Amino acid sequence: MAPVNDQLPIVYTIRGCDACVKLLRKFQTDGIVFEERRVELSQTLMDEARRYGDVVPIVVWPDGKVEQGFEGTLGCFI
Amino acid sequence: MPQATTAITPARFEQGLAYADFVAQAAVNRDKFELYYNDSPLSADDISFFRKATALANGPARILALAEAWCGDVYRELPTVARVAEAAGMELRVFLRDENPDIMDEFLSNDGKSRAIPVFVFYTNETRYITHFTERSAGAHAELAAITNEVKLQLNLPPEATFATVPESERQVFLREVIKRITPRFPQWRKESIEEMRALLSAALRLPNRG
Questions:
Q1: Which residues, 6 or more positions from B12, have their beta carbon under 8 angstroms from its beta carbon?
Q2: pTM of the full predicted structure?
Q3: Among B128, B115, B124, B118, which residue's Cα sits nearest to residue B81?
Q4: ipTM above 0.90, yes or no
Q5: Which of A40, A56, A59 is the best mutation test for B, with the most CBs of B within 10 A?
Q6: What's A37's domain CATH number?
Q7: Whether residue B161 sits in one domain with residue B99
């Protein structure tokens, strides 16, 4: 569960999820460095993401704050 | 909606995955597909209706599903449709949404803006389009909207508030409360999906909606 680099936000995504793609674009535009964990590729990562929330994208910030969804969208249920 | 020239020919339909093969190739959620397959919301009346529909000369013989294994709506709905296909003798073929954009483009929702899944398309034996169902029932969408409004009241948010417009400090509370309230409704939403598929077929085939 611990981030690989605990100074970086961890972003749980599914690349087929429009809200996830929008969040990734915004982070890249804003120059936010992050670690992406693609939950559609691994049951282990899927289970890990579910410990933080019910919809992706999920951002786990280094201070422990957790955010689900992105701006105007609920995100994708996982 | 299906276009005049459709990507779904009989030969293309055959290229879809059988349900068991779809589940076997899934990188995630195989346990969820098994769980929901074994917990079918189908009633005897439902099965009787789908069998009557299939028995019609112009009735459904094939179901095309657009799906991805990571999607919660897919693992809640697709196993039920697999059960329908088995019980009524229909051929189910699953197409991965992100590998079949030409098919997905024929069934976009939200005024052509959304690639919502699952999509279940009913065809005749000759692969002629009959009707299709997308994502969730109209009742589920309405309930989601109603719950969202209830949460706005609870949090003293203005009626016009959306996930996009609420202040960041309140957005996560808003979202978590909506999720908390809709999650217990999922079993009922699964039943309503079946009811809506029945209604769609009943209207398209002029078949009384009873088992």
A1: none
A2: 0.93
A3: B118
A4: no
A5: A40
A6: 3.40.30
A7: no
